[in-house]
Design goal:
The structure is a single chain. The chain is α+β, with helices and mostly antiparallel strands and about 180 residues long. The protein folds into two domains: about 40 residues; about 120 residues, Immunoglobulin-like. The strands form three sheets. A four-stranded mixed beta sheet has the order 4-1-9-10, with no helix packed on it. A four-stranded antiparallel beta sheet has the order 3-2-6-7, with no helix packed on it. The protein is rod-shaped, with a radius of gyration of 29 Å.
């Protein structure tokens, strides 16, 4: 055997063995890491996992604004995020803000009067829970009322005006109030 072959064989016996052990340990650690990451998802569907609180507590929806006010509004913000650009007096349902990230829990809704620039905050508390949101929901209807309150509705397709909003529309169109 030539000297360089002997040296190569010795090197492989010493280092090759160590490298093989290192590779086995690395593979074992990768498999263990994969099991740790994937284990919470096995044995339950995504909604069960979501309800147990193990996932992020937020939802991404397209927001549609309905204003039942007698004046135009703009800069509609939900938790400091733009949720609607503007709505005409007794208008809405036309503009959509897509992909709004909405955290579950208490919500803060604000809007500005287009005539005065005054900022309003919804008077009654608005809370979104996971149980309120149907599995197929893609839209959040934000309904703003004349008494400075608001309401949320969830829909798979473009949300319709709320029952309370329909009454306000009827009053306005039939009686001019």
């Amino acid at each position: 055997m030539r000297p360089h072959e002997k040296a190569l064989r010795e090197y492989l016996e010493v280092h090759g063995c160590r490298r093989g052990v290192r590779m086995k340990i690395r593979r074992l650690l990768m498999a263990l890491l994969a099991m740790i990451v994937l284990a919470p998802l096995s044995g339950c569907d995504a909604q069960d996992y979501f309800k147990r609180g193990s996932m992020k507590k937020q939802v991404v929806l397209d927001v549609v604004l309905y204003s039942y006010l007698d004046r135009p509004i703009f800069d509609i913000f939900l938790n400091g995020q733009l949720a609607g650009g503007a709505a005409a007096a007794y208008g809405g349902g036309g503009g959509i803000i897509s992909g709004v990230v909405i955290p579950l829990g208490p919500q803060t809704l604000t809007w500005r009067d287009a005539g005065t620039g005054q900022t309003f905050v919804a008077k009654k508390p608005l809370i979104i829970t996971a149980d309120q949101i149907p599995a197929n929901a893609r839209y959040l209807g934000v309904h703003v009322y004349p008494d400075e309150t608001a309401e949320f509705t969830f829909a798979q397709y473009m949300p319709a005006p709320s029952a309370r909003g329909e009454e306000i529309y009827k009053e306005h169109h039939l009686y001019g109030r």
